[in-house]
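Weekly puzzle thread! Below is a chain. First person to post its structure in token form gets bragging rights.
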Amino acid sequence: MAKISKKRKEALAKFDKTKVYALNEAVELVKNITYTKFDSSFDIDVRLGVDPRKANQMVRGIVTLPHGTGKITRVLVLCTPDKEDEAKTAGADHVGLDDYVERIKKGWTDVDVIITMPSVMPKIGALGKILGPRGLMPNPKAGTVTMDIGKAVAEVKAGKIDFKVDKYGIIHSGIGKVNFTSEKLMENVKEIMSTIIKLKPTAAKGTYVKSIYLSSTMSPGVQVDVKSVS
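Winning reply:
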């Protein structure tokens, strides 16, 4: 059995793990039980009543958080020369095509998001085995395959994230930093939950949102009353 650290024991002693908290209480608790020395991420885990193995119950979406994620997002744009200036002006960290395709083939993936154009996708498709497992493969549904390169880059830099339910029926996403104010964190929570609720598959039966937990890097999870996020 893994040994529980002193700081984790202190964190666990500050709240009741069996209790379901209102959103404002849960946010304050997570901020209070975070004991890392670095600026921890603030995360949400949402368990849904769906069967992700069935295509008509897959939940995937994009959302622009009102206060961003607090994370510096490194963006690579793979585009034709005529779109390079647009990408650079919007704030892309890396812009190019063939040279970056070759670098990726050799194992380079030091970015957080890759944005590209429909006409370039045949070249990107060959990188699927490298980019797919890292969650970096551009996808039209996530807004990362588009002709409007500048807008896509600006949105990602402003806090746009994409999410999807995993094989266990859970959506996990970082939605801020613990040093955000409680008000900003609550607004980010409500924004992503509003989007998730709108994406409820018609094939999903019974309770859609089964549970919501908030946590930070290495902190225990705090359960949130689903009704308090609406």
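Puzzle host: Confirmed. Bonus trivia for everyone else. The domain at 17-69+160-229 is CATH 3.30.190.20 (Ribulose 1,5 Bisphosphate Carboxylase/Oxygenase).
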